[in-house]
Design goal:
heterodimer; A: 474 residues; Aconitase, domain 3; four-stranded parallel beta sheet; globular; B: alpha/beta; Aconitase, domain 4; 8 helices; binds iron/sulfur cluster
């Protein structure tokens, strides 16, 4: 038999039918929905007069368009409230399980899927949200879709999809202290550009990937879309199985050990061919920061902004437009630049491990006076765990306020906006113009870099704090 | 999913020669609270079209009466970022029927095809030439023939073939709809489930 990649194996086993010269009809095991990209799909079902085909395979949450304060009160903004109410109505009408506001399982869709045991190895998972790629960390084919496709899945549990090409990214070597999985993925994106993986599905391999926790792997897969890839996945291993075994329950699975035996088969064949193969050395990666208005415009924190577009060979008008928007000049250094906001949260870095990393630097220190910080857990469960570990108390003592879970300032649909012209060091995934509010200027970074900025009020290399910490311990 | 037909389109163009235009620029998140597909055209490129004080930005191409037409000619890597289909709805609602670029983001491409907005990929060189021509003569017309898969700059006579998935082409030419097609496969889907589905 021809050797196959892990991606091929999962994809091929989910093809209901291949259309000649056309897309595949792909069966979907898990469908996540949220309030913003689903209402028009439900309208479509209504117009056709058809039901949801497999309501048990769709799960819903309210996350994008909700406030992060006073969630027990009715939502103040009328349009937001209406959108959340439509979701509630649609879920009731069609028999879909909803983790709405104030549900102890509520949270950002890509945070709750894994923590509730709904995301499992070998599955196909879609959601009307591009960061669905997050779930690939479990060895699943997970990708974002548009609302017309949400309607397809609701109506038939299938989607029409051309099969993407395959790329392998291998990361070997040792990560340095103060360098996180966020820096790994930002480094890769800065090397291959914001569109460098368009048309591909990525498999991440190598010794440095194997050593990462599930949370760290999710951060990597999450940002696959920022280089244009449909998604990214990591073959399941002991780390994956340990994570799943620790969950209080996994819906639909009675005997986890026999499932683990099945999941162990989910590996690329050793001689499987990829359309593109890239290698990176973890030892060369430093803490990263972005300087422009797409995630490909990133650099090591102690570097200078390039003189011209790193991808094209000259200073294109788009490159100059982007730096103008940010208020930067080619050749400038960012270290020491005074910033105004710090945002810790989102489906990229809103998990418990991220808040622990933040605490590592915050502990025993105080927030800088010029900083407004938005600290937003990715889910209610993450929030509960922060309480249990004393992190909220620790943050409070350092002068920070912790909000209630949601997407918040990652896309600024609610009130959590960065004002015009202000700089925000953000652990989210997109630094597009106006992404965090009209005129906002986003600098993407890891939770450690965000913590260093929150303490000093400036862009600061987090390694300064990490080495200090080490000395103290000795 | 609306049923839209597409066959031949002849039109002037609106140029937007920037690279990496993401869907947050096409329609900012704060305008995504609606629950129907209509009306998004008013907020297309909102933060480029209007100044901070709410006044029209006369420098932006959509506010320049010199340029109009049903074809948006963008820069490389158009439609990256968020999967929001609202971006396609906004472009369509504004009156565009095709977008031309040398490179599209995957999800945008699917969303466009699912809504009868034709994404046409041409070479970097031709795209550059077209932008140059539109700047000199805003009356520059292009012709898109879906059946023949040709894209022609009428005044220059440049005519190139563009690629489109044959299945999608047929859907657009005939105004067919994916969901009707999938619904007609119900029994096949059910038998797949009985044999293979991982999540029972
Ligand atoms: S946190 Fe940001 S990127 Fe993630 S789902 Fe929410 S809006 Fe999208």
């Amino acid at each position: 038999m021809k050797s196959k990649t892990l991606f091929d194996k999962i994809w091929d086993s989910h093809v209901v039918r291949s259309i000649e010269n056309g897309p595949d009809v792909l069966y979907i095991d898990r469908h996540y929905i949220h309030e913003v990209t689903s209402p028009q799909a439900f309208n479509g079902l209504k117009e056709r007069g058809i039901p949801v085909f497999r309501p048990g395979k769709t799960l819903a949450t309210a996350d994008h368009n909700i406030p992060t304060k006073n969630q027990h009160l009715p939502i103040h903004d009328q349009l937001s409230r209406n959108q959340v109410e439509r979701l509630t109505e649609n879920c009731q009408k069609y028999g879909i399980e909803l983790f709405g506001l104030n549900d102890p399982k509520n949270g950002i869709v890509h945070v709750i899927g894994p923590e509730l045991g709904y995301t499992l190895p070998g599955m196909t998972i879609v959601c009307g949200d591009s960061h669905t790629s997050t779930h690939g960390a479990f060895g699943t084919i997970a990708f974002g879709i548009g609302t017309s496709e949400v309607e397809m899945v609701l109506a038939t549990q299938c989607i029409l999809q051309p099969k993407p090409k395959k790329m392998r990214i291998t990361l070997d070597g040792e990560l340095h202290k103060g360098v996180t999985s966020k820096d790994i993925i930002m480094h890769i994106i800065s090397e291959i550009s914001a569109s460098g993986a368009t048309g591909y599905f990525i498999e991440y391999c190598g010794s440095a990937i194997r050593k990462l926790s599930m949370e760290a792997r999710m951060t990597i897969c999450n940002m696959s879309i920022e280089m244009g890839a449909r998604g990214g996945l990591i073959a399941p291993d002991e780390t994956t199985f340990e994570y799943l075994k620790k969950l209080s329950s996994i819906p639909g699975i009675k005997d986890i050990n026999s499932s683990v035996n099945e999941w162990k088969k989910l590996q690329s064949d050793f001689d499987a061919l990829f359309d593109r193969d890239l290698k990176f050395d973890a030892g060369l990666i430093k803490p990263m920061i972005t300087y422009g208005t797409n995630p490909g415009m990133g650099m090591a924190i102690d570097d200078s902004i390039p003189m011209s577009d790193a991808i094209g060979n000259q200073a294109s008008s788009s490159f100059i437009k982007s730096l103008d928007y940010m208020g930067f000049k080619p050749g400038m250094k960012l270290l020491g630049l005074s910033v105004d906001y710090v945002f810790i949260g989102s489906c990229t870095n809103g998990r418990i491990e991220d808040f622990r990393a933040f605490a590592q630097i915050i502990r025993g220190r105080k927030k800088a006076g010029n900083i407004t910080a938005l600290i937003v857990p990715g889910s209610k469960k993450v929030e509960d765990q922060m309480v249990a570990e004393g992190l909220i108390e620790l943050y409070k003592n350092a002068g920070f306020e912790v909000r209630q879970p949601g997407c918040s300032s990652c896309l600024a649909m609610n009130e959590d906006k960065i004002p015009q012209g202000k700089y925000a060091v953000s652990t989210s995934n997109r630094n597009f113009e106006g992404r965090q509010g009209p005129g906002s200027r986003t600098l993407l970074a890891s939770p450690l870099t965000a913590a260093a900025a929150a303490i000093t009020g400036r862009i600061t290399d987090p390694r300064e704090f990490i080495t200090e910490e080490k000395k103290v311990k000795k | 999913m609306p049923k839209v037909k597409f066959d031949i389109l002849e039109s002037t163009c609106v140029p937007l020669p920037f690279e990496n235009i993401d869907t947050d620029q096409i329609i900012p998140a704060r305008f995504l609270s609606a629950t129907s597909r209509q009306g998004f055209g008013d907020n297309l490129f909102r933060d480029w079209r209007y100044k901070k004080n709410g006044e029209k930005n006369n420098e932006f191409v959509l506010n320049n009466p010199k340029f109009n037409g049903k074809v948006l000619v963008a820069g490389k890597n158009f439609g990256s970022g968020s999967s929001r289909e609202h971006a396609v709805w906004a472009i369509f609602d504004y009156g565009f029927r095709a977008v031309v670029s040398s490179f599209f983001a995957d999800i945008f491409m699917n969303n466009a095809l699912n809504n009868g907005l034709l994404p046409i990929v041409i070479s970097d060189d031709l795209l550059k030439k077209l932008h140059g021509m539109i700047q000199i003569d805003p009356g520059t017309k292009v012709k898109i023939d879906l059946e023949k898969q040709t894209f022609t700059i009428l005044s220059a006579g440049d005519s190139v073939k563009f690629a489109i998935n044959p299945y999608k082409k047929e859907c657009l030419l005939k105004g067919l709809d994916d969901i009707d097609f999938l619904l007609s496969m119900k029994s096949q889907i059910t038998s797949y489930e009985n044999n293979k589905s991982l999540v029972k």
